[in-house]
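Extended Data, panel c. Modelled sequence:
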Amino acid sequence: MRQINRNRLHFSKLAKLSCIFITIYVAVWVTATSKEVRNKIGESNLIAMKKNIRNHEDGEKYSSSSKRMNTGLKTKHDSTVITVPVKPMKFITTKLENSIILQRHERSPLENCLPTAQIRIHMLNDRWILQTLDESGLEKHIGGDEFYITYTDALGNNIDDAKDAEEVPPTSVAIIEDKKDGTYILKFSTTPMNPNPTNLVGTGRLAIYYEYTCDIGMMPQPTKVNWKNSGAILETLYQNDVQMPPMNIFQKPTFDDLSHWPLVVFFGDSTMLQMIKDREATEKAEAEDIIFLKNNTFFEANIRTEFRMDRINKIQKKFQIMHRKQMLQYEFDVAIVIGSAIWDVLIAENIQGRDFKDHLAACRAFVTDLKKKYRGRKIYWKSPSALHAHRVNCVDANYDFQDCVDSTRYLSNSRVRFLHENQKTLMKELNVPYLDLFDTYYLSAHYTAEGDGRHYQQGLNELILDWFYPNNDE
């Protein structure tokens, strides 16, 4: 009996040792297998990223009307990667959650989107690719971010200080294409005010103005009516000693020569007026009448309304009251330039939805009526100007802080670009020449009025107007 118990005890020890051995073996096998799987996943992600970059490289080239800038400087042939900031900005989500106040039954834009907290830029030979990352540093696979990105060549400039960097005009600006998969194509262009920069060093500062994330910039009225602000991020990221990006030379657009007309009537908002008004001469004269930059231009007053169907009769009457006299006096020797966008994007009460369908119907109705009433007159539609959220500064605005917040609640480049593209399509259908100045304004954020984001300095407006008067030395 004692022998049997000793045998049982011996068997029990062997069984325990066997279990321990099997457990260790399984753990080692699982670890090795997991490592192999992770390696395969890592290789798979790397292959996918490289494939994604190759797809972007094989995509559409920059507009054929642009010319690649030949600087004579040596550029790197292998792609370089920069990540900014070094660590993800983990405060972005909290910042947005503090801004967002939802109405009943509304869904948060953050419900299915992690805010961008970091970016990685792959600097390729012919273009750069921006990849967005979330707060964990993981790649995002959804679009809807808005950035404004500039490169400022060293050029002997003191751009080490952030304030000084803001005062120096950028050498080039990135025209950004959202691929809707977390990546963005950056195609740099020189600017209208300095299309052919010289004596470039080839290295400088990259400024990334982070405006919106999670498609918040595209949200229409009245979705943000209760929000504390527009939901703009308004963070600026700098990277020094960056190699110069591949740049295209800005090519000024070609338009009809307006100097051939005895009179050109402009009809629109304050941005339309500022394109033709001699601001300095008008202020110096201290007169009620506007002094124009060109003798044959005329602007009666800011129409102060957005284009929408329930106001179309009011807008038509405004044109009649303002310009019937000129139409009769000059008959067929008058050209008409019209446009509407800024009020349509910004006015909180202008309920349009994301598609601006009602606005576009109003544009169609107004142009059709104008062509019918003033048969034979030349009609032009001026494109919207770009909006720059990163240039808005309500803290130092020259008017009430809350008024500034309310008037810029829906200010974003994505919305006005959408409007521009659809107006352009509509005018082509109506056979109305479209004066496309959008990229000119987009590349010129540096020349917006201080803290404003939507009105531009007279120097840029004079440059633009001169394109319409190529042989006029007034």
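The mean pLDDT is 84. This feature is highlighted in the accompanying rendering.
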